[in-house]
Write a sequence for this structure.
């Protein structure tokens, strides 16, 4: 937790209040904050501030804002990823948020087990976003969309997201073209499931405007390929 | 498992033998291989082959080599990372191996809990390497070294690894210089612990030839920053 993310309602009065059990416990137990300490605080979907602690109790920590701080910029990228195994979902979402992805789309695919869409973890996406923002020092939650049907998304939604200024790259081991690097334009990245997209899916993606690009001969797990690709794309 | 990694001793006779319980179970249960199927096999620290299955039992699978395949190239990088929490160690090692790091050094640091060096996971490093190689389709294990004392490593070992052709970059949030991108030379990357290196450690690293470089204003977890940095460095 590199900033404490607060709901705007917690910052209405002169003194702001941290009341979430998770945050109060982390600050009092792990960080061992004291009255007078400064604390970095973000207002969810708002600004970020350096604050000072004015009071500490077991239930709440009260703060006063000292000065505004800058919120890190996001990468102009939409990450479209095949719905991962539940145990991978949390980390994948946290990492994508921490790394500053603007929009995240979870998509069904032939090799995605239908049971993945039943996981209770899907009810906790907002919590994963909060953890990712608090890790990064960011305050702005990315947009998140779920599409449980592959074909309608690729044929009806995806084309509206693609233009010559805003290409979509699908990672595909057999592609000749390499994944671009050091780009300075918006784009979408499409990452398949374990085992990859099936040929029908790759063909449909290409037919609807995506460019198939290779990441080289190493086969990288979904949760690892996302930071790897983001580091490569936005290396300028 | 994108290739099956075998010990050279398992490939001496005409027919090669997969006998490790983990591998046999994975192939018979998850992949449901059949006699006559082809299978990608790597010989640990040796070559990689396309093979064909000639017999399957509960205890072993026998193969014959069909043709040699190319082993993916490694990145000419030494990853020097502060010893992570035990629960992070497995993933960090697997990812570094999967992404083709040539050499991995686990280093002590002021903010590394001494208990981390007692974890039984350290006895399983070789197993993590195997899993990382099987994921990547690689056969060559990276060199791994452990240094439980920071100062002697930085003053006596690190300088021998650094030259004008082979710089060392330490990720440091307050550095002015950005982490380079798209490099085509060897280098070392140094990643600190949770909470970062202390100023004394950063100063000692710089005094001994390291360049402090920034990854921008987002604070990224150790296990996430490694693929992010590798994607950035080797994007040419």
């Amino acid at each position: 937790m590199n900033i404490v993310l607060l709901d705007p309602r917690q910052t209405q009065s002169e003194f702001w209040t941290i009341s979430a059990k998770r945050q109060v416990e982390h600050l009092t137990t792990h960080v061992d904050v004291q009255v007078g300490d400064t604390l970095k605080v973000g207002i969810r979907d708002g600004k970020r501030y350096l604050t000072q602690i004015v009071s500490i109790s077991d239930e709440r920590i009260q703060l006063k804002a000292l000065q505004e701080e800058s919120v890190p910029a996001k990468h102009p990228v939409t990450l479209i990823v095949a719905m991962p195994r539940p145990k991978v979902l949390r980390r994948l979402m946290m990492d994508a948020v921490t790394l500053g992805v603007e929009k995240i789309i979870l998509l069904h695919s032939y090799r995605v087990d239908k049971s993945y869409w039943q996981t209770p973890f899907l009810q906790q996406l907002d919590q994963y976003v909060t953890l990712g923002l608090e890790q990064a020092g960011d305050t702005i939650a990315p947009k998140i969309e779920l599409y449980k049907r592959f074909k309608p998304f690729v044929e009806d939604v995806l084309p509206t997201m693609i233009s010559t200024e805003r290409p979509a790259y699908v990672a595909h081991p057999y592609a000749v073209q390499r994944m671009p690097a050091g780009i300075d334009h918006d784009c979408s990245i499409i990452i398949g499931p374990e085992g990859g997209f099936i040929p029908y899916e790759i063909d449909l993606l290409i037919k609807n405007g995506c460019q198939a690009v290779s990441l080289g001969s190493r086969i990288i797990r979904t949760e690892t390929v996302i930071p790897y690709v983001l580091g490569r794309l936005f290396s300028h």
Summary: Residues 86-98 of chain A form the longest helix (13 residues). DSSP finds six helices and eleven strands in chain A.
